[in-house]
Amino acid sequence: NAQGQEIIFAISANTGSLQQQTAAEYTKRVNEKLAGQATIKLFDNSQLGKDKDLLQKMKLGSVHLSMPSSIMSSITDEFALFDMPFLVKDRAHVGAIVDKVFWPQIAPKAEAKGYKILGVWENGVRNITNSKQAINTPADLAGLKIRTPKSKWRVKMFETWGANPTPMAFSEVFVALQTGVMDGQENPNTNIWSAKFQEVQQHLSVTGQVYSPSYLTTGKAVFSRLDPAIQKVLAETALDMQAWARDQGAAGDAELQAKLEAAGMKVNVADRAAFVAASKPIYAEFAKEVTGGQALIDAALELSQ
After folding, report:
1. Which residues contact 154 (CB under 8 A, 6 or more apart)?
2. Which pLDDT band holds residue 3 (cuts at 50, 70, 90)?
3. Which of 116, 123, 144, 293 could make a disulfide contact with 212, Cβ separation 3.0–4.6 Å?
4. What is the pTM assigned to this prediction?
5. 14 by DSSP, 3-state: which?
6. Average pLDDT in the 81-110 region?
7. pLDDT value at position 265?
8. How far is 266 from 39, CA to CA, in rounded Å?
9. What is the pLDDT of residue 305?
């Protein structure tokens, strides 16, 4: 009997971040629609584990829903399309990529690995922070120790630009920056603010190199065991929230930049053209290494018109 069933929704994102706000809004909407037939319980701040643990728990069924972001490229390389620097023009372009490229070509790759994507939400537009100097061009990154998410493509990107990148779980980043183990990191403003990185980083360089989606994800086997009526509500509400998440993200970008500046960070706008020029090798490598990689890149870029 599904009456009163608990659906465990666990995320690594901090309280107050866009990802957590989106998860909370989804939880509220689904719980209203299910009216006690089942109830989502949301756990944020890596309470039930980091993204890697949560991906495992969704396979085992101890967690029903999660919101991985960049780490999905470690499940299947096609997700790294969103790790290609400066691929995305704006959020309207993101919407087109999600509809025309992600759902038909990338989502099925996750299913083949035992995961079902229910919605493509937003993590955000990523900027670089560090404690040494303003980053205007890739040359300014030379030798800097930069934390990246667990995505080999994000690591390659920073290596190509001359930095010294290290992948690390988000929950460990603040202490790594505070103690100088890392000089800097890259994240959307919403994550920088909610994790209080402004307390341990002097410079915010507006680079906007990558737009990271956040994927509402479930274990395929776990999801199939839920009552079909519950499945329907979970899936439909996830899609309904896609535009909402992007709109919230757009509204927050400038406002959060102003807050970070008011908190004492020095803000500069990086030379986009210099970064774009330095990023060509990453595209070439993705095209060579990922089956159908060039076609994915071409399809995504075509939609920016």
Report:
1. 70, 83, 148, 165, 167, 186, 210
2. low
3. 123
4. 0.94
5. coil
6. 97
7. 98
8. 44
9. 77
Q: Look up residue 242 and give its two tokens.
A: 């896609």
| 2: pLDDT strictly greater than 70 | no
Element (H, E) at 39: strand 38-43
Q: How many residues appear in the chain?
A: 305
Own/partner contacts of 230-234, CB < 8 Å, gap of 24 or more, are 230/2, 230/5, 230/7, 230/34, 230/37, 230/38, 233/30, 233/33, 233/34, 234/7, 234/30, 234/65, 234/118
Contact 22, 248 (CB under 8 A): yes
What pLDDT does 12 receive?
96
How does pLDDT run across 150-174, given as a tens digit for each residue? 999 999 999 999 999 999 999 999 9
CA 65, CA 272: separation in Å to the nearest integer? 36
Question: 173: part of which helix (H) or strand (E)?
Answer: helix 173-178
The first and second tokens of residue 134, run together, are: 């303003």
Contact 98, 87 (CB under 8 A): no
For residue 159, give both structure tokens.
């290596």
